[in-house]
């Protein structure tokens, strides 16, 4: 094959790859909009489908014994989890039809509770610029939520 023929094949292949990338980007953009995804989601757990379910625009079509990867267990329609199948398709699945280790669900839920608690503590601190005029960079905690160490308590013997 001549050099010109090779160049044409490379250009054709490049254009096809570019077209595929645009298609993939469009699909990801639609998924983000449809399921309120941020792009930072990770697989929480995996499970096996116990009962087949028909798919539609938002629900995954699954056969019995298919493997799915759970992406989100909260902030979904009632009784649904957001999942991805082995082919990469994303959609809702009935939470009752997925066989998943219950201990891992408890751990996931506990991590969510712990992170919410940590966020509430972090939001109880305010910077000095927000409070009564300290120098920039100083940080104070609200007394109501701060945990005092034993040394901070003293007896007035006077």
UniProtKB/TrEMBL annotation:
A Gene Ontology cellular-component term: plasma membrane
Biased segments, Low complexity type: 123-139
One GO process term, biological-process aspect: integrin-mediated signaling pathway
SUPFAM superfamilies: SH3-domain (SSF50044)
Gene3D superfamilies, per the entry: SH3 Domains
Annotated spans, Disordered: 123-158
Biased composition (Acidic residues): 146-158
Endpoints of the signal sequence: none
Keywords attached to this entry: Coiled coil
Coiled coil: 4-31
Name the UniProt record assigns to this protein: FYN-binding protein 1
Species of provenance: Lingula anatina (Brachiopod)
Lineage: Eukaryota, Metazoa, Spiralia, Lophotrochozoa, Brachiopoda
